Amino acid sequence: MGPTTEPVTGTTDETTATTADTDTTTGGPAALCERLGGEVGVGELVADAQARGISRAFHGHTDYVSRISVSPDGARFVTASDDKTARLWDIASGEARVLVGHDDEIWNAQHTWDGDEIATVSKDRTLRLWDARTGAPRATIAVPSPTRQLVFRPDGAILGAHTIGGEAWILRPGASAVELLTPPEERPSRSYLSLDGRRLIVQPELGDVYVRDLDGAAKKHLPRTRGATGKWFLDRHGDVALQLSNDATVHWDLATMTRRPLDGISHSRRPAFSAAGDRLALAVGADIHVYATRTGELVRRFVGHEGPVEMVSFSADDRRLVSGSVDRTVRLWNLASGRSEVYAGFEGVVTEAELLADGRSILAVSTAGEVRLFEPRRAGRIVTDHAAPATGLAVSVDDRVASIDDRGRLRIVALDGRVIAEHAVPRAAAVHLAASPDGRSFAGVPRAWVTGSDGRHPARAAPPATLLLGRFDATAPLAVALPAAALELLWLADGSAVVVALVDGSVRRIDRSGAGLELDRFPAPATSIALAPGGDWLAAGSDDGRVRLTELATGRHRDLAPHEERVTALAFAGGTWLASGCADHTVRLWRVQDGSFRAFDEGGHGVEQLAFSADGRALILLSGGETQLRRLSVETGEHLAPLTGPLGKLHGFTLAGDGRRLLTHGADGAVRVIDLADGEGRTLAGHPLAITGAGFAAGGRMIVTLGAEGSVRAWPDDLPETMPELRAWLAAATPERIAGQ
């Protein structure tokens, strides 16, 4: 029977594990659709599945699954079980070949070095070899005692250790019987091989523990280890030994024969070593400790599981760590940030988990015989990558994307990744791009803000800025020299010109030819500007708290009562309301007609962005350093339910053109898509650095994001909203996996 397709139960967090350990999707997609008909919103369900991936359950084993091994080409994997079978699975189709022949529990199953064969070892004291593609049996060979560890060398040798009898053995290429690597007279109680198969650590009944070089006869004895308790392990090349006992975890540097007790007592069935060999990971209760391999120094501690950790393993690129626990969850840890993603749904304890080549998909097995593949689809499709810090993003009406990096490369691409043009422009940091109202042009300018602990400040000493005016085609953009550094930019309603707010206090109109006209001037930097929806009034705020309205047709000015500190954000709602945000974390709601206002103290590190909902009934605001967006009722001034962003603090937000949805820009590299009708949302996580731009494309059915690392990603936003659409979505996502339901 092939795998079923099931939405994952899980969360993403930093320190707290999910409490949901029940698989709510048993019975496959068809049963899931029926059961959830009146219980959960379809959009919410699919958003969760799309954000966290699809869990595929591979059915067949009936007892404890102890090991997984993925083929070198990544197309198949093999599992070993106490049900006396191993199974060879095809990842794409889910079909399995059952490897039958052992008479007792299978303790290990691994692909050989060249991937041509599968080796299995069992409690029945045999090693069996199978064809890795067909599953056909090739050989059965007796081993001294039930074996848990298998190691394969490039020369074709198969080695075994960590046996019930304490022996270690080798099956040389072409041999029909194994040879002992441990003399019987030593009566060993423990043995373990280095992962390269070149060294062996042995604990004999009499005498000290020793490490033997298998390419020679040399032995190194570990002093004062006679009668030592616990288990012994070697690192990848046999340069470091670990002793794990109930009383201590001890690190041995075999070059100097020095020992060092490690912080924490580990119960790991075996340690995990990084591919580079410089890190080792151990389970310490419900935590994971990561140490420097050569010194034993504790370099990282991961907390999150709610029960003892059973296994840990590094990704191939050493950037992530996967762990399985008694709490029936799998966690994928980012070694740099310490954040983890949680995957649940198991009935049994997770015994093994392995990352696939993409570094995100996870195979995991449990004591209940479960085999699951978690396939997160969260990284988004990369449209283009600047490979340099980037901050500017604009999306055209015909689904082209303009982006710019701090090396002065302006790139125009289609959503399919096709490069339309790349232009060299003046180098600048923190360039902001804005699409024109008709979506056919864009403008860009570096914004001279400096962020401190008390909020944003104008960089008064910043050099004069260069304004870019361009089109979403191969035409080179026009570069316009401005008299001072810029802080803000917007387009006029008819798209004929842009307005810029400058550090010298001026507010200037620049038309498409580059000609400029000063609209207003403050004695302090002009820090914020906003245009009324009809395009007739312009609001501007300054560093000294002034707020002024300018009628664009006549040039007539109206001063409003000043704030006490810097004006940092402005927004209009129709021709009735103007909102202004201040560095002193206050917000004012002004009646444009008479200049009266209501003031609200919103806390935080100063208001950084404001916008009104499409109906003008709610004001959305972002305060510096916060992880959520606040909302105020325009009519009553009451606080509405906040809009929650990703886990990290927010840098900004983008409203959809229809006003129905909103994108938050996370400092943690995540974007959250929020439905403003009900406040529900889903997280798009994939950028390694902060989000610097986000927008909607393809008529709102595609989301485009820019990360500070320089990659532009595209994410489909086509979630079904009814049960029939849900069934169709599941079928389209994994048709071959649902056919057997």
TrEMBL record:
Keyword Repeat in annotation: yes
Ranges for the WD repeats: 58-99, 99-140, 302-343, 560-600, 684-715
Keywords for the protein's UniProt record, in alphabetical order: Repeat, WD repeat
InterPro entries, alphabetized: Quinoprot_gluc/sorb_DH_b-prop, Quinoprotein_ADH-like_sf, WD40/YVTN_repeat-like_dom_sf, WD40_PAC1, WD40_repeat_CS, WD40_rpt
Organism of derivation: Nannocystis exedens
Protein name as it appears in the record: WD40 repeat
Keyword Acetylation among record annotations: no
Pfam family name, one: WD40
Region described as Disordered: spans on this chain: 1-28
